[in-house]
Write a structure and sequence with these properties.
Helix content is 50%, strand content 8%. The protein is mainly alpha-helical and 504 residues long. Among the domains are: 63 residues, no CATH class; 125 residues, no CATH class. Strands 5-6-7 form a 3-stranded antiparallel beta sheet. A 3-stranded antiparallel beta sheet has the order 8-11-12. A hairpin with a 2-residue loop joins strand 5 and strand 6.
């Protein structure tokens, strides 16, 4: 098993020796025989260093080819490149390779580069591009994989690697199920499909709400649920593991080396919780915006997470009604209303006209302004007045030449200024459109696409993130170099072209 393997001497020696530039490379290696036999053999010949260690690894493991065959891709236009790229990011159902990969029963799309597995929240944004070309079959296959993973793993993991199994990602299954229902099954009135989908959404809801019954007396938080001062229940990101991430072992141990033993455990857990957020990493999670060691993700009640759980509740309300389970529909509608009231109570700043995360340690809102404030518009949780105020903030402070910047904090973290990310552009654009801010949504899309086209002329590919403030510079920050492909960038960019063409 991988979890035993990551505690082996071989794994630790390879990761600490930096045999590979990216720690994830060895975490994803496929043993020629088995983890067990490679570890046992190493016990006999090790410890090894330098070239001898590298030779041992290369003779007992194989590695997936991450390269995208650029010569086979049409780079005359962004749209054509995206079309040509999908087959190269497409993976067939897996056989068990006895590696860290959790085999999937159905086809899927990987983001690209170092990410050679399915990622949970990425897949929703990827699905937008697949829907644009009519590839509902792959979207459905990915949804089926998530439903299967949830049954096998107890939650939809961050990605289908064993080392991701203790955490999820932002809950977007309801968005993907809704997309499929409206694009395919609604016309057929296929309620048996809908009932299966509802069962999966219920299971996900239970995962996020697990532990509510434990929040009695002074207990404020457990797992992913938090009891606010007035008794309202909201959610946070969390990870049950309190150890370094195998895929970033050296980095985590290095960053934690001067902390006490208790501080180290807390640091590892908070790092992992930030990975569950999908925003790994950002000043949103830090008490000192430029110091990663000050991370306190589990003390933060995030506005975007709670809006996505609100969307899950509202989706269940709608779907229960469609299958004539009115009692269940009314019950979950009530829970959604309570959540909305709590979101407004704790995460809305009326004076500033913004949504913010809430810090339970300090019992006050976070000072960090981030693109998470667009998600209430995206899920329809904002009043007309709130939407108006958020729109003003986005257009005045967040809109840059290349689209919307992630936060207004300039830090070394990749989910901060000057970087912009495709999924956040979509949250904002869809939210603005839904509230009738058409010209503003078009301005965001046009800035994003003009930046994409300018960068594409130079890079000949799409990337996972962009510097939206200075278009001549590539995005930086984070733990690894900028990856090319890229699943969600392709999906959102494709959708923006479609929306703008349709509106011309």
């Amino acid at each position: 098993m991988i979890m035993n393997f990551v505690n082996s001497q071989l794994f630790k020696d390879v990761q600490m020796a930096e045999i590979f530039a990216d720690s994830k490379t060895f975490a994803d290696a496929v043993p020629n025989l088995s983890w067990q036999s490679a570890s046992e053999l190493y016990q006999l010949v090790g410890p090894l260093q330098g070239e001898k260690l590298r030779e041992f690894v290369m003779s007992h493991f194989s590695f997936a080819n991450q390269a995208i065959p650029m010569a086979k891709l049409n780079t005359t236009s962004v749209n054509q490149y995206i079309l040509d790229l999908w087959p190269h990011l497409h993976r067939s159902a897996d056989s068990d390779l006895s590696s860290s990969l959790m085999p999937l029963q159905f086809d899927y799309i990987v983001p690209g580069g170092r990410f050679q597995e399915i990622y949970y929240w990425d897949s929703y944004f990827t699905a937008l591009g697949l829907e644009d070309i009519g590839d509902l079959a792959t979207i459905e296959a990915m949804v089926n994989n998530f439903i299967d993973l949830q049954k096998r793993n107890g939650c939809i993991p961050n990605g289908n690697r064993v080392y991701y199994s203790s955490r999820s990602q932002p809950p977007v299954l309801a968005l993907m199920v809704t997309l499929l229902w409206e694009a395919k099954y609604e016309q057929r009135k296929d309620f048996s499909w809908l009932e299966n989908a509802i069962a999966a959404l219920e299971a996900e809801y239970q995962f996020w709400m697990k532990g509510c019954e434990e929040l009695v007396d002074d207990k404020q938080a457990t797992k992913r649920v938090v009891k606010m001062s007035d008794g309202a229940i909201l959610n946070r990101y969390w990870d049950s593991a309190r150890s370094p991430r195998p895929e970033s072992l050296k980095e985590d141990l290095h960053d934690a080396q001067n902390l006490s033993a208790d501080q180290q455990l807390s640091y590892f857990q908070n790092i992992r919780a930030a990975c569950e957020s999908g925003w790994d990493f950002s000043s949103r999670w830090l008490s000192e915006p430029s110091d990663l060691k000050s991370i306190e993700t589990t003390n933060i009640v995030p506005i975007d997470l709670n809006c996505l759980v609100y969307n899950l509740e509202k989706t269940l309300e709608r779907f229960y009604s469609l299958i004539n389970k009115e009692h269940k529909s009314r019950a979950i509608a009530e829970l959604a209303l309570f959540r909305l009231e709590a979101i407004n109570q704790y995460c809305w700043d009326n004076d500033k006209g913004v949504y913010r995360d809430f810090n339970i340690r300090l019992n006050k809102q976070s000072p960090i302004d981030s693109m998470a404030m667009a998600v209430p518009l995206f899920v329809g949780a904002a009043s007309e007045q709130q939407a108006q105020q958020v729109k003003t903030k986005l257009m005045s402070d967040f809109l840059k030449p290349g689209g919307l910047v992630t936060t207004l904090s300039n830090t070394p973290q990749q989910w901060d200024s000057p970087n912009g990310w495709a999924p956040l552009q979509w949250f904002a654009v869809k939210g603005l459109l839904d509230y009738g801010f058409i010209s503003e949504a078009e301005a965001v899309m046009k800035n994003w696409l003009s930046m994409i086209e300018m960068r594409f002329a130079e890079d000949k590919c799409l990337l996972e993130k962009y510097n939206v403030c200075e278009l001549v510079s590539r995005a930086g920050g984070g733990e690894y170099t900028v990856q090319q492909g890229f699943g969600w960038t392709n999906g959102v960019t494709s959708r923006f072209y479609k929306l703008l063409n349709d509106s011309l």
